[in-house]
Amino acid sequence: MNWNNQMRHYMKDHLPLYVFVSVLFVMGVIFGALMVNALSPGQKEEMERHVNSFIQLVNQGSQIGGTETFWSSFLLHIKWIGLIWALGLSVIGLPFIFVLDFLKGTLVGFSVGYLVGQLSWKGMLFAFISIAPQNLIIIPAIIMCSVAACSFSLYLVRNRLMQRKGELSPAFFRYTAITLFMGMLLLGVAMFEAYLSPHMVRWVAPMLLEAQMISAP
């Protein structure tokens, strides 16, 4: 019960930061989706070839996923939240945390926007199968890490620049514990991406090959 009260108090105290970071992420998603329209015809054709090749390989039964994919995915996630954690250790890193949040939203928005724009409802199905599941955990994890980093950075401002005395260790350990817990969740995400997501993609691949915008090479 005490832990629940602490979490409720923490969320209430940091609600403005959660709102700000979430809005920043949504703005990134919108920006990424709009970037699809800025692609030249040549760029769209090149991306279409890559998507087509991937779907063909999956439909032909080529091996995707596995241990190599797991480590690649996990290291990517850890590097992302690790960079956020490192930036939160200094006051000057605060703006770069916001840049990373906006960039993550842009990447998600561009990926979904491209698939939907090129493949219509089948692209939406592909995005729902291959992008949405893991991002239901990745996005909240990054937002929580970002809020924790911003909170710690602002704590440093209050206790150093404003000459307020306070124990740094409890705040640091709480900040690091949040990041480590999110890392554990992302470990599960990497396992999903490596061992479950490929089977889901194989299920939807034949339907994607029937889309008019994807043609066999």
Descriptive report:
Helices cover 83% and strands 0% of the residues. Helix 5 crosses helix 8 (197-209). The protein has 217 residues and is mostly helical. The longest helix is centred in the middle third of the chain and has 37 residues, at 94-130. Mean pLDDT is 83; it is low at 212-217.
Quaternary state reads: single chain
Mean pLDDT: 83
Poorly predicted runs? 212-217
Q: Please tally the β strands and state the result.
A: 0
The main sheet comes to: none
Descriptive tags:
217 residues, mainly alpha
Give a quick summary of the entry.
The protein has about 220 residues and is mainly alpha-helical.
Secondary structure layout plus pairing:
Blueprint: H1 2-13, H2 15-35, H3 41-59, H4 67-87, H5 94-130, H6 132-161, H7 168-195, H8 197-209
